[in-house]
Amino acid sequence: MSKVEENKQLKLSRLMETAFSLFTTKGFAHTTISDIVREADMAKGTFYLYFHDKYELQERLIVWKAEELFRHVVSESGYESYDTPEDKVIAIINDILEQLQKNPRLLKFINKNLSWGVFRRAIDRSENDYMSFFKGILGLSDDQRAEILIYLIIECVSSTCHSVILEQNPVDLQTFRPYLDRLIRGILAPEIEK
Amino acid sequence: MSKVEENKQLKLSRLMETAFSLFTTKGFAHTTISDIVREADMAKGTFYLYFHDKYELQERLIVWKAEELFRHVVSESGYESYDTPEDKVIAIINDILEQLQKNPRLLKFINKNLSWGVFRRAIDRSENDYMSFFKGILGLSDDQRAEILIYLIIECVSSTCHSVILEQNPVDLQTFRPYLDRLIRGILAPEIEK
Amino acid sequence: MSKVEENKQLKLSRLMETAFSLFTTKGFAHTTISDIVREADMAKGTFYLYFHDKYELQERLIVWKAEELFRHVVSESGYESYDTPEDKVIAIINDILEQLQKNPRLLKFINKNLSWGVFRRAIDRSENDYMSFFKGILGLSDDQRAEILIYLIIECVSSTCHSVILEQNPVDLQTFRPYLDRLIRGILAPEIEK
Amino acid sequence: MSKVEENKQLKLSRLMETAFSLFTTKGFAHTTISDIVREADMAKGTFYLYFHDKYELQERLIVWKAEELFRHVVSESGYESYDTPEDKVIAIINDILEQLQKNPRLLKFINKNLSWGVFRRAIDRSENDYMSFFKGILGLSDDQRAEILIYLIIECVSSTCHSVILEQNPVDLQTFRPYLDRLIRGILAPEIEK
DNA sequence: GATGAATGAGCATTCATTCAT
DNA sequence: CATGAATGAATGCTCATTCAT
């Protein structure tokens, strides 16, 4: 990579890191572009060389951070050593919760920004086929059922863990975990005959 | 109530209804005080006779709408005719979902604004002791367990139903309901011995 | 008129006069709204209470100044005391040139802004039917011919007098006037048989 | 011309042609340097190797286009085959109008940019002595009278034909032409004895 | 010579808030 | 009590110009 190209990469990531930091402290709506470039120590115009506006920055931040999270899950969660889908999913969730607990800003950012719609877009855009990965883990061939289960897991885990991790409210994560495990097992329980 | 007092009440509720309508259509951030008073057919200054700023209005709106929702549940859900806590809770959730399906704006508003913290504040401020009401329904004496279960139910239901009702995504409410019922029953299942 | 209403009128005309002054010194394109309000000693926001943007201000300025010019012509040029259309028109033009010579800024403004299209719009919007007035003076029933002659007169006079009055270039107004008179008489000469 | 010199000439004319095209479509004020170099497929910095700023580019564009117009007149209008100055001038004007009608962009550009002052500068800078050329055609020895007549003709023709050719307003060129011819003959009519 | 990333002053516009009437 | 004209700080965004490579 040329020196110029290198410098551009540096500027880009400094902008994104700064924005991430500000979005998670002051909130997206209350973060101005002036704030970002001031913190990143750049000229205002430079921002517009890299992003069309604040919303594009947000979108790219989400994709980037989600990707990061998933990459860790795939390589570090150790889900392969478990046999049942339930145990695999719980291993994955434990890995994610661990990541989020270490990085509360990421949790805050994800919770504020990661609607199901955005999540799907991020997943679809990624080079890796995470959807198939998850379906494989669940061991399901029924596509609709698989998608609903993934949806349920993601929504329930992310919504409940937000205040638990960040505010220990209503209880702390350790106390909460058994409830969460049972929730997951409940979601994944075999379909009831109608 | 004096005529003057009456008039003030009228203005107040016109402001709140207008704001609710605008917040749920244009979004909180994109609704200006000018928008609200124009729609409510009042002078800009009048707004500041009733609210300190936009944020106070938002807060009071949340309390008001949550109260409305709960009142309906207590009087119209018919939860009393069921025997088990599971069935009672499901009856209550069905009532709420019905209300939200009829009033997607309310759903949007609640989902965007009703964090657990705000919810607790709203409940605590209310003249009615909703917390005891829910605990009674669950038939639990263990206060912590009761609060966790309520927390789980509220977070899971609200987070999953948002995109289902508003966008039929990933599936529509009818398809989703059996999954939701099983989720609730999973949450309420008797505690596993450790 | 109430005191408030009076004040508003005052602000409006101060804005318009200031803008007129700046447009004719720095030019329309190089005059910013900041310039205008700074000169008029007002807050920036005040501008937007009176005009949608710079272009609306320009449009209204044109209508206003054109109206002013015509009003003077009608009441002060003494065109009625002449018999032939030629002499009447020349009397009118003399009156206008006199006004413009006294007020070179107006000349500059008109010349930079008063295209035939804008002129027609200004005339059409006015409460007074100037078009009929001019046709009456020309003593013509043929509408097309009348409009062409008016067009010719306005374009030729305004385009030639601009640099003559403002820059005495290529000659000064006194030297130029006989040429102009003959130009007008040429334009108004009876139609040649084809 | 060396290969390098040739390349520079090519770049220069590509810049000028592109700018001309953009100025006449989007307008001078709304054309940015970025627009020009993007369209001309060059780097931004390159622009400043050829022009000091946008205004110098404009000035040089005017001179270039006026020169082009005159060159055509001299070689193609066939004015020599007429006897009287009137007929010669009308032949010249016809040639110019034909050029402008074929190239409305040029008309637009000239009309927006070609004040008498700029015109004189362009003529004076040119290698060809157009002023003498026109004087010769008019057959006049009185320098002042010649300059006034040229001034009158140029101003009247250019100002009246602009909206006629570009917008067929108030009438189209064919309808307008007899009026124009008579206007020219009026201007050139022998001086009235004072 | 040519490039294009970086700059930052400058612009139009918005809007919460105040306060004289 | 109610009004709405006035404010001006703040925001997103543009673009001519510079300069290291």
| SSE ordering of chain A | HHHHHHHHHH
The rounded Rg of chain A comes to 19 Å
Q: How would you name the oligomeric state of the polypeptide chains in this document?
A: homotetramer
Overall form of chain A: globular
* Regions with little confidence, pLDDT below 50 for 5+ residues of chain A: none
Of all chain pairs, the largest interface belongs to: A-B, 32 and 32 residues
Roughly what percent helix of chain A? over 70%
Distance between the ends of chain A: 61 Å
**What's the average pLDDT of chain A?**
87
* Strand content bin of chain A: under 5%
| Largest beta-sheet details of chain A | none
Number of domains of chain A: 2
- Please count the beta strands of chain A (DSSP E, at least 2 residues each): 0
Structural class assignment of chain A? mainly alpha
SS summary, helix count of chain A: 10
Describe, in short, the structure shown.
The structure is a homotetramer of 194-residue chains. Chain A is mostly helical and 194 residues long.
Index terms:
homotetramer; 194 residues; mainly alpha; globular; DNA-binding
